[in-house]
Amino acid sequence: MWRKMPRAGLGAVMVFLNLAGFAAIGAADDGAAENAEQVQISNIPAEVTSGVTAYKIYIQLSTGVTAKAGYVAKGEALIKGETSVIIDLKKPDGQPWNDTGFFNFAIVISPETAGTSKDILVHGGEKYFSSKIQHIAWAPGLINLHDILPAQVDEIFDGIIMPDTGIGKK
Q: What are phi and psi of 41, to 5 degrees?
């Protein structure tokens, strides 16, 4: 008899990233570490898919590798045609977040209107956060989660894009 397994969402993505054993993107800076409060994401693509403009970007950070761990910080920003944005990080309770250490992260880029997970970009990685504004460049060092964990990308879509009233639904 087959047992139905619960879908783990972002936690499963983080498990895969850790089990895959990929190296941290970027190393800790020399000198004293500062608590990260913001993330600057650069090299943001202008389009999510051919002819569909990128509209909004999201980031979630986690220290755990299971769905139960949840996220420790998240943030979002409108792209407005920019190739780089700075996002304030917030705790799950909405208060400002700051910390230093290794964190798993997932970055989602959405068009203004989305109907399925195929309409968004979802990439992830692991990084040591050690400065007030932590920099993450979109690709080539990030893992395209559509390629390796499509079911979890569906869960990310359902958990991030569907509740966002600022994103139109197809």
A: -105, 125
Cα distance between residue 103 and residue 128, in whole Å = 6
Question: Is this prediction's pTM over 0.90?
Answer: no
- Residue indicated by tokens 């990128």: 54
How many residues can be counted in the chain? 170
The DSSP output letter for 46 is: S
pLDDT tens column, 40-72? 999 999 999 999 999 999 999 988 654 556 789
Terminal CA-to-CA distance of the chain, rounded, Å? 38
Taking the C-alpha atoms of residue 39 and residue 37, their distance in angstroms, rounded to an integer, is: 7
Which residues lie across from 86 on neighbouring strands?
Answer: 40
- What does DSSP say about strands 133-137 and 38-42: parallel, antiparallel, or unpaired? parallel
* CA atoms of 4 and 16, how far apart (whole Å): 20
10 Å CB burial of residue 105 (0-12, 13-18, 19+) is: buried
Positive or negative, the Cα torsion across 110, 60, 76, 139? negative
Residue with tokens 């990080």: 89
Mean pLDDT is lowest, of 11-20, 62-71, 90-99, 106-115, for 11-20
Pairing of strands 121-129, 143-144: antiparallel
